[in-house]
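Quick one before lunch.
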Amino acid sequence: MNTTTKLLAAGLAAGFLAVGFVAANGAATAADMSVIDKRKDLMKNVVGKNFGVVKDFIEKNKGSAADVKKAADALAAAAPKIAPLFVKGTGRPDVDPKKTRAEAKIWQDWAGFEKTAKALGDEAAKLSKAAAGGDKEAIKKQFAETGKNGCGACHKPFRGEEVK
Ligand code: HEC
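Model of the heme C complex:
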């Protein structure tokens, strides 16, 4: 091993130790907090916002089918970004429940969590197709499916009650 490799190895080991330390002690680092902020931002300002565009179209006749298509495409693009923002050690009970609603079950059933994130992508792609067709009834039906299989299917098992 030359000096550079040695330093690199030491650095990596320290990095792993730091991660282990966080998980064991529940002391979230600044990096953990930023990942929590990032996923909340994605949920609120991308996922929630675009879902709201579709909801307003159906419930308030606001906007057009073209707006719905744009929103559905944004939802489909956001879906694969969800799981990587749920870094192990950044949920309950490691982090204060006032700061995150991410339940421990996410990491106990990681495959199930990834599956519901993928379901959102699949439902959003169908919503985009329905919107391209322009039929309001078809959009309405697929909006309900997206809410059920895309949002609810994940929130129900994996998002805990809000703690104030
Ligand atoms: C794969 C899982 C998953 C999917 C799919 C999902 N969510 Fe979430 N969402 C979560 C989790 C977990 C949280 C809590 C994150 C936290 O507090 O750290 C959350 C939080 C939120 C929040 C609150 C954000 C904040 O400011 O604290 C909103 C709004 C939201 N989701 C809307 C939606 C909508 C609308 C959909 C469907 C179009 C959706 N989500 C799909 C897992 C998911």
